[in-house]
Amino acid sequence: MWRRGAHQRLQCWTGELDPPAAPAAGPPPLQRPAPLRQRRLDERRPGRDPARPGPRRGRHGHPAPASAARRTHDRARHRRRRHPRPRRAHGGRGGVRRGAAGPRRAGLRHHRGGGRGGISRAPLPPVPHLLHLRPGPSGRRRAADLRRPPGRPGRAGRRHLDAVRERGPDRLGRARLPRRLGERSRGPPLRAGPDDRGAAQSPADLRALRRRGRAARRGRPQDLHRRDPLRPRRRGRRQRRAHLVHHRPEGLHVSDPTSHPWWYDAVVYQVYVRSFADQQGDGIGDLPGITSRLPYLRDLGVDALWITPFYTSPQKDHGYDVADYTDVDPLFGTLADVDRLLEQAHELGLRVIVDLVPNHTSDQHAWFQAALAAGPGSPERARYIFRPGRGPAGELPPNNWDSVFGGPAWTRVDDGDWYLHLFDSSQPDLDWRNPEVGDMFEGVLRFWLDRGVDGFRVDVAHGLYKEATLRDQERPKEPEKLAESMVERVLQDEPMWDQPEVHDVYRRWRRVLDSYPGDRMAVAEAWTQTADPMAMFIRPDELHQAFNFGWLGTPWSADAFADVITESIAAVAAAASAPTWVLSNHDVERHPTRYGGGPVGLARARAATLLMLALPGSAYLYQGEEIGLEQVDVPPESRQDPSWFRTGKPGRDGCRVPLPWAGDAPPYGFGGAAGTQPWIPQPEGWAALTVEAQLADPGSTLAFYRQALRLRREVLAGADDDTAASTDGDVLVVRRPGIRAVLNAGTYPAPLPEGEVLISSGPLPGGVLPPDTAVWVR
């Protein structure tokens, strides 16, 4: 008998191995009688001899693996038919959904189909469309359908279904799908498609589902999990986890990829106005400077640019303290410069997103100046959050809130009132419970939409409303545990963030955006605790996208990347939107420095970028990352971030240093006459990092970004959104239609995947995937 092991027998069962040599002649071995159910199936199948029952066999006559054998106990079979459960996979510690093994590769199976995964408006069939692998009671990864069709409900089951339907949709607007009676709830909430909310499954539909399931079980071997050739064999316990995200089963209606709006899978380049390009020669970037560099952005391969605030401002927070939302600060140009920029960008095929700051204004805004002049209790002060102080003489702030920039979030004015500012004291918070505020910002939206902007980035989108009572924030008693960043703050008690009323604002804005042609959009800067609250900002009647800050903060780990990919795509699936991915922006440390700095940090940054560009949805790039800029240690005398003056900490200036364009000494072609210093000094030694130098080097980071963006358009354009992420130790594999993106986040080389290498983030010596390297394979 052939004894080469279970794995080889499994390959024989699936037809991957040649048949073994014929056994020596002799009497056939004795066989156990087939179970009753197997005999009945044999009698019904054409071409089978009912007089010779036997066990199930592979293509070459070898016995089927044990996991494919059927149980024979009638009572157990009856119980399974009433309460089916997913079976453990064969040959691995991480379970995989029945039928998940691919025909030629192990791991998770793609559902192949046309289209890019957009959800059509046709009614959806009642079939499960999401699968999420999560830890079971033993801590191992198990597979469970998020939407499993229940068995035919009895009387009690019908009462259960009715009770679930009466509850209505959940807070994300998704249908509440029933669990089987007696089954405990585990894992993330059940998710429905965008067009079947509240749709009940009829008994006929459920019977049809069961018939299809039985037919599928008869038609192919089940519970097969072959080892991926990408992964080396290991002794002992295999540290393998698998995540299936954004899976689309057969029968789900999918829209034509060309029906997706432009922002759905766009690559957006963030331009920090002060530091991009200086055309006026004063050491500060401006709008004409951006216009002069638009061909560079087109050649880089991005689809749109997001421009930080250029409105009239005293520049206490570099434009995020707005004094006039419908005019341009002379420091940056004029309204005519905006019109010229929009016209030329559109001619080059680039979209333009502008920054909008609705949480607060400048203290020089006409409204705030009127509020100071009007006095306590006036309608002018009702546009902001003024309150009397606490204490016998009102000498204490109204509550214990702190500013994000450090220090109290309240400042007292001469008449004794206090005003709230969650950021700098020059940025008083608006009171969005006052209808005048909403009316004013609708006018601002229409002003810029009429001029031709394609979208808005909404600053502090989660902060417009504060808890009505303005109660104290609950804090840990130990001072060292106090939050120091916005990310940490939203993980604590948060009466100043993420109040439910904020979503009414964005529903109103969505109606405004939808009233204009050309797929106008808005993306939220919403710092939330998890991906699910983030998804609330992108429900179908609210904003279009939200920044995925969970991805930005992911540590260098294959498992961590896989978890965020899984959670992010699952969270946005219910909203029929697409995820966003971002690694750096003007408020955080540049990711090469976060990943360790130096050559290691740059290698990891390039690998993370290549992985990010393989994912479905939109990718946001921050200026300078395409040339490998790291965080700069700005001298104290040159720091300008308001958080530096309030806390004494370095702040954000290090990621805002002006770009080096050409030359071998500052200002490196940034603008102005030779010797003109930019508003933040550039370090010596940037000559090799200039755009001019890297354009001449085919191995530069700039050349790598341009190649990766070109391949993203060529390989993934028109692909559906099916995405599977799996890890084996420190190696992460992300499967998209047509490619596999493989990341080695460990310290040892890994086997290079078989196939055509399209691009790698670094050299591939000796046919292996080095540490801190990513590759696309077709």
UniProtKB/TrEMBL annotation:
Listed GO biological process terms: oligosaccharide catabolic process
Pro residues: bias regions: 20-32
Pfam family, one: Alpha-amylase
Keyword Hydrolase in annotation: yes
Keyword Hydrolase: yes
Region (Disordered): 1-244
Record-level Gene Ontology MF annotations: alpha-amylase activity
Alphabetical keyword list: Hydrolase
Basic residues bias spans: 70-91, 209-219, 232-244
Residue intervals of the Glycosyl hydrolase family 13 catalytic domain: 270-656
Basic and acidic residues composition bias: residue spans: 39-51, 159-173, 220-231
Entry similarity comment: Belongs to the glycosyl hydrolase 13 family.
Protein name in UniProt: Glycoside hydrolase family 13 protein
Species assigned in the record: Nocardioides albidus
